[in-house]
Amino acid sequence: MKKHPKEVVYSSIIIPSITLSVILVIVFLSWLFFHNISSYQEEPEHWQPIPLPELQSPVVLRVVYAENSRFKSLTEDQLEKILDKTSELVSEYFSVEVIFDYKRKTNIESLFDNLPLVVKKHQSQKIIPIEDEQDGIETFNKIRDSIAQQIKRDANSEQSIIDYATPYLVENKKINNLEELTTELTNTIMQRYRYWLEQLANDGKPVLDASPYNQWIYWDSLGYGDLPYEIVITNQLVASIEENGMPVHTCLRGGITGGNMTFNKHSELGGFVFVSAFQIINDNKLMSYLRDDETYTQQQTINYIAATLTHELGHLLFHYAHPFNAQSCIMNPTPLLHYRQWFDQLDVKACQKLNSPMLKPGAVTIKYNIKW
Ligand SMILES: [Zn+2]
Fold this sequence. Notes:
Bound molecules: zinc ion
Helix content: 40-55%
Strand content: 5-15%
Strand order of the largest sheet: 3-2-4-6-5
Order of helices and strands: HEEHEHHHHHHEHEEHHHHHE
Low-confidence stretches: none
Structural class: alpha/beta
Number of domains: 2
């Protein structure tokens, strides 16, 4: 059969041209993508405050439970009770009505798939890995500098920090100045963090494996991706060391973070919170020491996770800061992991009487990177 001249033109010129164009576009987009990742330089002015949210009544909060199957988990019944208790506490402490829209359970892998590559790349540079024994002194110095940087930023009095931290250091000795304290805090966080490298999860492998899920800085960055929630509850241990400022109480806990509030571009509130149940539902030697309790009852488990979530919602809804050592206030961070003492001392009326400037809306500035 004779071919029509136009068909000949299509097959010999246009089709190869289209193919070539598609290849060129793909090459260009790939270049743009990788160039963008490698050429971005983080600048201080890229970090801007999250605006204080305007609250509707009731406030609807979307919730997801992110599970790591390697660890002990929460049941649906426990999650329901935790959310019920949280709405009670939020109403009592913050006089706000919240409604939880419990979306679903997801796995930790899917949650982390949303972390944008460019963000992950930049944040990964701030992690201090201590698994590698080889660069011991360099690692030690980096951690010590990070702690010193945070102490300077917090601007508490030298003696009050020494008094707060000394009883919980690994080495039982007299601390005379901040230099000695940062050295001992470094020893403490390294030793307690290393504990998890030897502890085994349900699959017989170390609790801290090569996965990124224990890294606080990645949790803190999930909101730059597609995260349609205000609350993430997880059974994952979040324990890590970063060079951009390690808080004293986090060092004493061996790098553990129980909860956090940070940016979320997919929330009208401008942020999301995560709460980890790991250190409440898992019992071991280090937990017994940090909690001052070997184990918790069902009710304690629900109360402590709900109170931690309420604390984080105080940051999210009102940008409240921490009234350190104001034991009646839910915004006072849990000392070590003394959940029982912390929870039992909460007293909403006593806290209101303190009239703490830390508990004024907007007391804390939480920043996000406008370029991400
Ligand atoms: Zn807090």
